[in-house]
Amino acid sequence: MSHPATLRRVTAIAATAITAVALSVPAAQGAPPEETLRSEAPRDLKIGSAVWGQNELLDYDRKNPTEFQRILAAEFNSITPENDMKWAEIHPEPGVYDFSGADAVVAFAQANNQEVRGHTLLWHSQNPQWVIDASASWTCQEARDVLEEHVRTIVGRYAGEIYEWDVANEIFQDDWDNGGVRLRTEANPFLKACAEDPVALIGDVFRWAHEADPEALLFLNDYNAEGINTKTDAYYALAQELLADGVPVHGMGAQGHLSLQYGFDTSIQANFERFAALGLKVAVTEADVRMPLGDDGEPTAEQIALQAERFDAMLQACINVAACTSYTVWGFDDARSWVPGVFPEGYATIMTEEFEKKPSYSALLESLRDATPGKSPRTPPGLNTLNR
Ligand code: 9MR
């Protein structure tokens, strides 16, 4: 009498088997799944891009993404709001917050299984006019109150949704005339108001951020901070001082804005290692590699190759140092790069304006793949047989 039930079971198993076979067909016969930067990333290394949420993500429709949004989701497992969390954007008037761009970045990330790097809380640039005006007469306590309210509001709003924060950005300025670098106690309105003890203020910004989101890793971040140099020596000393004071500082970010006009300091890995030895995380936070272009606006073959080497050298340092948590490019396509607006240079990102992948992209992909256990270096079709 159990026959019909057995039959049903057998039929069900058969159906399952057929489904399994049917499902396995595309994988067996079709193209292999698309390799992307995020799919090839080793360990828990995050591969990120900056994105301007206000410009690119407000209209996001998951089922109908723009080409830019499709690539952003496919290639990266981390995104950084390029401008949306900066003071002028998110806190344009006293007591007035505009979270629209930042919310769009966080929503996009969550929809696409990405993490968010917050950027940034204490910076000399992109402060709103009201901060600039008010700061003319600030006492240190007044500056502290304004900054504390801002930090607790922003970090608190996104608590649990941001894995790393660039808390203090570019707080050292180059001061070559005086033989080194010093804290930006003139251009940064908050440090200026507290110039008598700027380190105490910096420490408290990290403390406020940590209280507002105990899970987020809190970073110092700067440009010209790749190799071992006067500036990173200053950061190293500052990090030691903050750590000795019990400040919750967790990482040092090297922005990685390179230009082919200058040499590349290969001590980046050694620099990362010394910060890691302090117990800090490190990250490449804003990588791009710009270059002067000819009259035709095009790079030479040599420049294209050299750009790939530089992008890759920064990634190699990150891969080789276990404390390196993330490698972020400052925009992935030339059409959205900040570079041409500021320098007489261009071609700074890993994809062209038409989203064509440059050799720089391929170099990153290969290095990520090679660093992933179980993945073997890609061999061009046919080469295997020829070699045997
Ligand atoms: O890419 C950002 C650009 O859109 C802004 O206009 C500019 C304003 O200063 O900031 C750019 O991002 C900077 C980042 O926040 C900090 N490091 C240097 C980056 C390039 O200037």
TrEMBL record:
It catalyses: Endohydrolysis of (1->4)-beta-D-xylosidic linkages in xylans. InterPro entries: GH, GH10, GH10_dom. Residues 367-388 are annotated as: Disordered. Keywords: Carbohydrate metabolism, Glycosidase, Hydrolase, Polysaccharide degradation, Signal, Xylan degradation. Its EC number is 3.2.1.8. Gene3D superfamilies: Glycosidases. It is an enzyme of class 3 (hydrolase). Pfam families: Glyco_hydro_10. GO terms for biological process: xylan catabolic process. One of its GO terms (molecular function) is endo-1,4-beta-xylanase activity. Residues 61-367 form the GH10 domain. Residues 1-30 form the signal peptide. PANTHER family: BETA-XYLANASE (PTHR31490:SF88), GLYCOSYL HYDROLASE (PTHR31490). Belongs to the glycosyl hydrolase 10 (cellulase F) family. This is Beta-xylanase.
